[in-house]
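FIELD: query
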Amino acid sequence: MESLILFGLVLGLLFIGVPVGISLGLSSILFVTFFSHDSLSSIALSLFGAGQHYTLLAIPFFILASSFMSTGGVAKRLINFAIAAVGHFRGGLAMASVLACMMFAALSGSSPATVVAIGTIAIAGMRQVGYSKEFASGVIANAGTLGILIPPSIVMVVYAAATDVSVGRMFLAGVFPGLLAGGMLMLAIYVVARIKGLPAEPWKGFGNIVRGGKEAGWGLFLVVIIMGGIYGGVFTPTEAAVVAAVYSIFIALFVYRDMGPLKNTPWVEESDSAIARVGFNGSVYGVSFFLVWEILSFFALADSETITSGDRAIWGLIMGVGLAIFYIYKRGHAINAPLFKCLLAGLPIWARNLGQMTRAFFPALFGGESRKVMLDGTKTTIMLMFIIANALLFAHTLSSERIPQMITEWMLGVGFNWFTFLIAVNVLLLIGGQFMEPSGLLVIVAPVVFPIAMQLGIDPIHLGIIMVVNMEIGMITPPIGLNLFVTSGITGMSLAQVVRAAMPFVAVLMVFLIIVTYVPALSTYLPYSIMGPELIN
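FIELD: result
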């Protein structure tokens, strides 16, 4: 009876239009006040505990990193790289949009951010070469959902916090499913493209792929920093989020220069001589290789007792200098310029850029564009954390009334096994995902289904991936599918038009959900091979 009253309060408040976060918190307070033996002080302690949850501290920093990486320049570089890689296939521009969404998902951890960043550019590009607006919108709406499946993922952080499982294992568990989901969407696009005769981009050679990868490299290296740092044992997922935020700010402001006082300021100007360009570019390759080597070798060899940081630096310096000399010698020979002359001619370009970065450092960090990005990220964080805090309060009320335990006993008593239980979980989450924001729904449902899953022998990491995939589908199903609203906003289409455009590809994700649900190794093989099995107390 208590469970019916509690859920009835939540549904009643939602039905009359009360926001999700307030509905969860207010229903918990009313239930504890009038129907429970628990004290109101437990509510205060629960809210205080939500603010002190170490794992949840990763969320605001991942959101901040996503905000800076969502600049148009980063998305455009990813799309160009994706087009160079797969654009020559039939329907290649749509397939490249999916691949770009997969790469951006690895930078942002957010589905709406992925839709906005990639969709704004990709949909316009697809329409210019003959794709229908509906087809382009359906592709982006579905591909954007990969933002919460491919690590790092904010929703995975929320699941880990709600169930006390490893964030690191959850991130690794999303790799193979994320690649499979993206591959299935691209295969579906290819089949449709062959049937409808959709256009293909001309093949421009492997050199174009290398150039595209070079332009997108600094953005994609964020993935290496996050994943390498976590699994190299250098920092925790929460610390990785902080590093990601700092790195994203530096790349957006000072390397890509997509915003701030250095916006549209090129590293190399047209007035620079060919000799100076060769010397500068060669030294940039050398310095870049040295920095990348230092970071990667630190992740791999930080705990080594035989190889010191000095050894790593010496090897990195030798290889970096060797790369720079090779490039300058090869390019300089083509223009009949000696090695040292090229090096000396490139120094003024270094001096000019370092001077620009020094003078623009504080104006870039505290300028109008940076403040706007931080304000937008703060608004998103406050909204999300408010929902999560109230969802945790609701979960606390469920736990104090032993509702999960009662549901567990009932389901086991009527003969549920792991197979039928997973069907029930999928149905519950698919329905709930149509009406609630993923993080809030996950915090509510996870504490209820998690004990049952453990009783039935279901792997906790596998369960987490199943729940994340359900949240993906929930983001593109009406009436509250967030990706549908975002796609409608950037295309000007009505919500009904976006829904019709997205539905054919939702069928692909439904097939993917079945595969993920009943092939546990797809989720568990990689994390358990690297980190060992998840142990639940």
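FIELD: remark
The radius of gyration is 25 Å.
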